[in-house]
Amino acid sequence: MPLTLGPLLLDAGIDHATALVMRHAYVREHEDSGLQGIHADSTDAEILQYTRTQSSDTRRFPLDPPRVWVVFIREGGDQARLWSVVENRGEVASDGILRTFDVVQSEHMADLRGRLVIGWKSPRTWRMSGTAAAKYPVMGIADAEPIPFPGFDRLVLSHAQLQAVMREHRYAAWRTALASVLGIYLITDTSDGRHYVGKADGEESVRQRWSAYATNGHGGNVELRGLDPSNFRFSLLRVFDPATPKRDIELAESHFKEALGTRRHGLNRN
Length: 270
Hints:
Blueprint: H1 5-11, E1 19-24, H2 44-52, E2 53-55, E3 68-75, E4 79-94, E5 98-105, E6 116-119, E7 127-129, H3 130-133, E8 138-141, E9 156-158, H4 159-167, H5 172-179, E10 182-189, E11 194-200, H6 206-216, E12 232-240, H7 246-260
Parallel strand pairs: 1-3
Antiparallel strand pairs: 1-7, 2-5, 3-4, 4-5, 4-6, 6-8, 9-12, 10-11, 10-12
Helix pairs in contact: 4-6
């Protein structure tokens, strides 16, 4: 039995009955409204802006659209490639002709962005319910394009992003880089701003240490158990060569705990 979109939506935690699926087509300018469309060189920001503007005509767009929108881009006459999943946070403006919504990109199906291609058997239909789209066939899932490692001093990862880095093929270069160093890292609980300073020393590389956080959220740290890892942000404060004496790393860890006040005001107990 051929694979359809439905199981992929469910696997991503998207309920068919509460999702909207749409397909954008490349068009420089809409004849009916004069609004600028999107094209092959449009940025994600431009596509997001295009997505958030919809018709006030309820025959063209639902009066009360759902929270989750799964957005594809037309590819050929009868196919569509996944651009992104966005979260609709509600309507913010309307002039009677166009409505503007507060939409943000979601991490749902992030590993399939630009890779998932489905058949789109209704070429004149540009949006439908998730239940209807769930029956559409999957035509292919391309290999993920490698993502270049941005550098140790530019890493800021949510827990979901950390899990992707530790799991997905496109982040292979990141795992290699993180496996090559020891270091002092910072975990920030964005729900209240508290910090936790930790270290990857001679026994574990940064990759090994962060892999534990990706797996269970707390990495074995008592201070982090019971907290919601979806609020965590991971970054590196300093990296060391693997030959660095363990004592030097311990001193650096103690310095950052003191500098950031994580024993008294944060999540470190010692």
